[in-house]
Amino acid sequence: MVRGFPKGSRQLVSIDPINARGDLRLTRITKSYGDFKAVDDLTLTIPKGSFFALLGPSGCGKTTTLRMVAGLEEPTVGSIHLGETDITTTRPYQRPINTVFQNYALFPHLTIFENIAFGLRRRGMKDVKEQVDKVLSLVELPHLAQRKPTQLSGGQQQRIALARAIVNRPALLLLDEPLGALDLKLRRQMQIELKWIQREVGLTFVHVTHDQEEAMTMADTIAVMNEGKIEQMGSPADLYDDPETAFVANFLGQSNLIKGKIDGNDGDNLVIDLFGQKISMPKKRSHAVDSSLYAGIRPEKFRISRTGTAVRGNTLTGGRIEDVSYIGVSTQYVVAMPWGQELMVFEQNDDGVPPFDKGEEVIISWEPNFTFGLRGDEDIEAGTEVNPEEIGE
Amino acid sequence: MNMTLPKVRVPYLLLLPGFAFLFTFFILPIANLAQTSTQTPISGGDTGQYEQSFAFSNYVNAFLDNREQFARSFVYATLATIFALAIAYPLAYAIAFKAGKFKNILLVLVVAPFFTSFLLRTIAWKQILGEEGFVVPTLRSLHLMGQQTTITSTAVAVVAGMTYNFLPFMTLPLYASLERIDPRTIEAAGDLYANGLTTFRRVTVPLSLPGVVAGTLLTFIPAAGDYVNAAILGSPNTKMIGNVIESRYFKIVDYPTAAALSFTLMAAILILVTLYIRKAGTEELV
């Protein structure tokens, strides 16, 4: 391609894309297929060196976003920058970006060694053997160099796919549901390993997944995507403790969302009326826009006490134990409230108190600081549906 | 417990019809052919009367007398295979990767010629390449061909006819192996700094090799033994070994020579194919 006189300001830096380094910036990206917008006006910055996760259900646009970053799709509108270089229309092979594909996409006709050497050879690197050997020991599979991909187990193929990508030391490593095909135990192990490798090699990892636990285990920053947009972005703890939308509250872990009304102020706290019972919560944790809101409390933040005992913090009375599941580390209760809602409560089995029985009358209490507030017009079912395709993966 | 015995027998029972068919229509004729190939004429007998005399010299004579036709057969078959590959690869590639919703229609078009007889299609080619067809006048008007030169009755016509007739046998296996390539491996090559051409050379072609091997075999083997194209589109100067065998059998009624030639052809093809498969190393590709 002839590099002519720059047309716009964004062309001013005439760095060859393949050497581009820095933060990844997506600016107002939209990808449409006919009337359907897979990605809708998305703006996002991924800092250099971070482990970033795009989390969302299937069809939320996370894979399309990843493919646009890789160059396998072109955005309908918007631009993608790597550092100062505009790579929106750069061909995939000219981007300093490598991908670990879902199901790995190893070259079946090449040995493991040649699979890993592929990218190095294309760029005419000198010390191919040395670099391949090094990355093979990093993923702890040096003895498999002369095998063919079909002779490897799923977990081994996964590591080779990772090795094939990181050996190129890309500015950005994209991981497209890389652990989806592995069984649960292996997945947990690989999550820890991936995180360790990311620290070891110091590359920027962008990880696409629908598994919230996987995203929370590995990523520094998670962007939760839904219907082509980012619902919320932040550290795993931020997202979990202070979700801004019902979708995030339900998609990351479980939430109890109770309909309420803001009834007044009390210093830095709001007084909330939940079906006639008053509770308080910090103002800064409310995302309500008017007086109606949903009070959100995570199931493990609740405490259960027998009616009549003295309790601290926010309290809701009139509960009745509807169901008890003992699962070892905790006991999960379903508590029916007077207004007809059933609340989930997880109690740690650490106090020697025997579990409550079905039908017992109880009080529910929690620390006001654990409450989060959502807009009163939210769909409280958002993010709770389980996609049958994603079960058993 | 009693289930085990019938279970063991089932595969053999399933094999039985195929085996019976092959025995009757392949093994027996071959044995008969082998027997005929070493016979000599009965002295004082009629034409077509032969007796067994284990005259292995039949093979030597048959080969020495027809070296030219043997050579021509393999040259023509090789050329037809190369041309068919050159035409079929882009075709199969386009159908597999670029055809979208037209994929099935195009595949039907590839096999559509089979709906008419092989013989008729070859005769049609005689017309296409003839003086009144459009090929010769067009080439002449473009001065790509002399005014006196013709195509019919030449090697060009024979090879063209064979290329055309065996094209579907090349296209279908190529399509099958190209279509089986996981598109993500192609994307992965692009992701790993390979441009379109390099991706094609390093990934697409190697992964389609099983199809290339199958297609070339399916084209070369019947082409080497073919006599219809040479008979209809050629001249005495383009005679292939198939034509010799045909005329020995049906015109000269020289069964032993025809049989010896058939065996020699079979052996030659077998040797070439074995060498080819060894070289291509297909077992590693699958």
UniProtKB/TrEMBL annotation, chain A:
The keyword ATP-binding applies. The keyword Cell division does not apply. GO terms for molecular function: ABC-type polyamine transporter activity; ATP binding; ATP hydrolysis activity. One of its GO terms (cellular component) is ATP-binding cassette (ABC) transporter complex. This is Unannotated protein. Keywords: ATP-binding, Cell membrane, Membrane, Nucleotide-binding, Translocase, Transport. Residues 24-252 form the ABC transporter domain. Pfam families: ABC_tran, TOBE_2. SMART domains: AAA (SM00382).
TrEMBL record, chain B:
Signal peptide: none annotated. Coiled coil: none annotated. The keyword Cell membrane applies. This is Unannotated protein. Belongs to the binding-protein-dependent transport system permease family. CysTW subfamily. GO terms for cellular component: plasma membrane. The chain crosses the membrane at residues 12-31, 74-93, 105-125, 145-167, 258-277. Keywords: Cell membrane, Membrane, Transmembrane, Transmembrane helix, Transport. SUPFAM superfamilies: MetI-like. Residues 70-276 form the ABC transmembrane type-1 domain. It is a multi-pass membrane protein. Pfam families: BPD_transp_1. GO terms for biological process: transmembrane transport. The keyword Disulfide bond does not apply. It is found in: Cell membrane. It comes from freshwater metagenome.
